[in-house]
Amino acid sequence: MGKEIKKTLGKAAKKVFEHTPEPIKDEIKDKVKEKAKEKFVDSVQDKAEEATENLQETTEENAEKFHDKAEEGKEKAQEALLSVRDKISKVVEAGEDFQEKISSTNDDGDDRKIKGVKSIKGYTDMKGASNIKSSTKIKSSNDIKTMGS
């Protein structure tokens, strides 16, 4: 029904336009041109404003994403540096322990020490034939104590 009304109004406007004098037709044409210009300018301005808003929203979203990614990168780098620092401190500690073991003196009686020239036995420290136990010094079954004795 809306289309029929538009058609009827369009036909009526054409007939009225045909029967109007020329000076009025020129004025109507000028007014129609001005209205068309205004509508065109308004539509272009609306599209430009919409594009500006979209650009601003996109810029804000990208800035937010960038800051989030930068923060993530900063945290990852900090975690990596902390783990490297922990590993280096463990290596330093192990090196210090190793240095202590190597540089400690033989007075401690620690068997893990590196033996020096003084620690090597000489020919005087070896047992001779006189130091070997004889058969009389070896214990026999008679020397073993029992519970009752």
Automatic annotation (TrEMBL):
Q: Where is the composition biased (Low complexity)?
A: 130-149
Task: List the residue ranges forming a coiled coil, or say none.
Answer: none
Question: What superkingdom does the record give?
Answer: Bacteria
- Region forming the signal peptide: none
Compositional bias, Basic and acidic residues, is annotated for 62-76
Chain segments carrying region Disordered: 43-76, 126-149
Q: Which NCBIfam families does this one have?
A: GvpQ
- Can you say what this protein is called? Gas vesicle protein GvpQ
